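=== RUN LOG ===
request id: a7f3
mode: sequence -> structure
chains: 1
length: 216
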Amino acid sequence: MIVRTKSGEYRADNSGVLLDFLGVKKETAGPQKVAGDVELIASVPFRLTESETAEGLPWTLSTFDLDRFSERIDPAGWDYKRYMDNPVIEWAHRYDIPAIGKADSLYADEKGLHGLVIFNDKDYDPFGWAIGQRVKAGVIRAGSVGFRILEIEIPSKEDSKDGTSLIFRKQELLEFSICNVPANPFALTKTIAEGKPETTQELDGSMFWGGLINNL
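=== RESULT ===
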């Protein structure tokens, strides 16, 4: 996961590093508010839920599943009101590249955060359109949220027996990105989630595409 603040960007390889950065005591179980303006980029459970409609692609952007960092995001804690004023879909959290699409009709339920993804048209954005085509073809299957942390919870020893080390209880959605590789094993399209075999490689294409775009 990546932590962004006004002073820079930091990589946190586990929840312990994140808690140290936030100044939260790992020994203190229960909900804790987060002071300061901290943005977290974390790959989360995501899947393409249905086939494309006239309005866009139905997606599940996030669920309560346990990710590879032993963390969970509470679906009831999503605040996306401000996000809907600027509902950008990014490529690999690259804020220096124009958005490749937009989100619409977001809603949260007990299963997760859902909505429609609408990729840009080919006539004015060949790159964003091409990412959409890769998603529709099943070449790219992963997504990742960028959000501001508002409240977290340290599970008790009893509640952490399932491996959960941290729960994000309240968070403000800033953006959703399409990316090559998720940190969460559940961050896949529905065909993979339903058990069809697939081979993945730990690759990050953001530097490649960023370099390509910058040289155009």
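=== NOTES ===
The helical segments are 15-22, 126-137, 190-193, 206-214.
Residues 2-214 form one domain.
=== END ===
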